[in-house]
Amino acid sequence: MKKLSSLIIILLGCVAITYGQSDLKRANRYFENAYYAQAIPLYKEITKKNSNTEVIKNLADSYYNIGDFTSASRWYRYLANKYGNDLEADYRFKYVQTLKANNNYADANKIERNYLKSINDLEALAAFEKDLEYLENVRAIGDRYALENLKINTEFSEFGMIEHGSEVVFAAPKKQNGLLTFTYGWNGEAYLDLYSAEKDRMKFGDSVAKPFSEKINTKLHEANAVFTKDGKTMYFTRNFYVDGKKKTDENDVVHIELFKATWENDTWTNITVLPFNGENFSIEHPALSPDEKTLYFASDMPGTNGSFDIFSVAIKKDGMYGEPVNLGSTINTPQREQFPFVASDGSLYFSSNGHPGFGALDVFISETKKGTFQKPDNVGTPVNSGFDDFSFNINQATKQGYFASNRPGGKGKDDIYSLTETKDLNIEDCGQFIAGTITDAATNEVLKNVTLQISNETDGNAIAGKITTDENGTFKLPAGCELSIVINASKAGYQNNEKKIFLGKRRNQTNDASMALVSLESIRKQEEAKRVAAEKMKVKEEKDRVKNIIQKEKDIVKRDDKLMIRVENMRFDYNLWYMRRDSKKISQKVIDMMKKYPEMVLEIGTHTDIRGTAKYNQELSQKRANSVLAYFIEEGIEANRITAIGYGEAQPIQECATEDACDEEQHETNRRCEFVIKSL
């Protein structure tokens, strides 16, 4: 009791001294020693009077480190608004993570995209957009697991559950028995111990959990146990605490290390720290390969790519260990990789906030080929969320396992969930379908054996080989998303046709590319019909035009089914062919009309009386016609618009049975010239 009172006095004295110092110094000391839960209220009080950037950064980071992403996001937003694209990378990264945790993926992506554009890093921007597309493909799989929040969870943190025989072993805060309880400054909770419970009794709640082993548990942290198949050897994480004493680095920090213990005489004994631990860095989260010849772990030892990397170390036959080997950039990123687990097929599961994920720590799987781990894949939802998802393990035979998460809706800060895998991890690019029916445009009958060529409209590259329609004239083929494509259809005896389609983001959508082809025979018939119609129209228009001219020009008359230009008394002297002076004057009306209507074509018809022989009169009338033709050409009328025909005595106006039957005036009437319009 005296010792207890002395301890209380010492603690009270420390408290009095502490509160005598300035709030800022105390807050910074808490922050520097990772006592984030204690630093937060002091920083919050300081911000009411002082918006110093370092204070804001430390407050935001404190919230971030204890998993309060909503509060952290509010303070990171303050920094982002103040510094924009000049915000330091680490703070921008954590701000983006908190936005994702709050399901604000749009703003998270916008911040990253704008930053990459601002520094003109086109390669990184392309990689970022590819990662977003990849995550959409992961989301498209849907929920791959059935989850259950275990009744063994409390309002505190539980995680790292692993099966051990008929029991499960997991980490949880120490039970608060007695006046004094050691608490962990990081999050204000008690230090972690390993607990165990019968698997079939977990349904009864946390009361069935009991401390795993008084030999294993200490007053500091123990967590993340892994057991050999025979159950006689275990590896676990503990603060560097040996023989009742903690070991610290030069900054008085007690790091996390890996320990080994063996089961002998019904107790855990031979508890030893592994030889590759160090006082100035942490090693944590052990995992065994299926053949138990390799131990995997997470560490921030020298040579890491990020804050924590995953390493492996060989376990030799004599029980000694090889040198730790970093798993390299395929697995490790500039951010954080932790909580490895190796499945029975050699696949590596781990948590990371550096690979493409949904926010904070996500679980990833890396399959092994010929002893080499492949590019990791996000295991998908609902295991992964915008919050920390970690300590994943699964029995590949039963497809059942456990993981932990600090997502909303749980009982405590970190909760353990059981999982059952219900769907394989088949990550496929966004896919849609192009389908349709090709028909005859005239008959609407389906057309089989139509050749289809599908190409990308942007670059012209084919996105599928040549395909043909089936017996029903239909086709269907897969395609990607967000593409502008052109479908060209061709068939012998038909005119080619094409259709352009834009494929959006909606997965498994079927896009209709039905088309009708016009047969060449139909085209010929259509062209012929067009030609006939055009001719009819032309004739009609010509008739209408001529009709309008006739109505307008009173000297154009119809006589004996002929369209003529009316002239009065254009005569020739007896037995002569040249034009008389009065005839030239009379013909000027015809010449003027031909110039007015350039399309007009005329026939000059000349006649004789019956005196003389028919042969002579025929020759005489042709001379008369030629003389009129020559005169018209002389007056500027094109020769190709005029024909000159002599009709002799064959078409008299005055019928004369004999030369003496008609007088001279009647004979003169027959010696005439007429103008017949051949076209107008």
TrEMBL record:
Compartments, record wording: Cell outer membrane
InterPro entries assigned to the protein according to its UniProt record, in alphabetical order: 6-blade_b-propeller_TolB-like, Bact_OuterMem_StrucFunc, CarboxyPept-like_regulatory, OMP_bac, OmpA-like, OMPA-like_CS, OmpA-like_sf, TPR-like_helical_dom_sf
Chief location bin: membrane
Lineage of the organism: Bacteria, Pseudomonadati, Bacteroidota, Flavobacteriia, Flavobacteriales
Coiled-coil blocks: none
PANTHER family: LIPOPROTEIN YIAD-RELATED, STATOR ELEMENT OF FLAGELLAR MOTOR COMPLEX
GO CC annotation, single: cell outer membrane
SUPFAM superfamilies for this protein: Carboxypeptidase regulatory domain-like, DPP6 N-terminal domain-like, OmpA-like, TPR-like
Domain of life the protein comes from: Bacteria
Keywords: Cell outer membrane, Membrane
Gene3D superfamilies given in the database record: Carboxypeptidase-like, regulatory domain, OmpA-like domain, Tetratricopeptide repeat domain, TolB, C-terminal domain
Species annotation: Cochleicola gelatinilyticus
Annotated ranges, domain OmpA-like: 559-680
Name the UniProt record assigns to this protein: OmpA-like domain-containing protein
Pfam families, per database record: OmpA, PD40
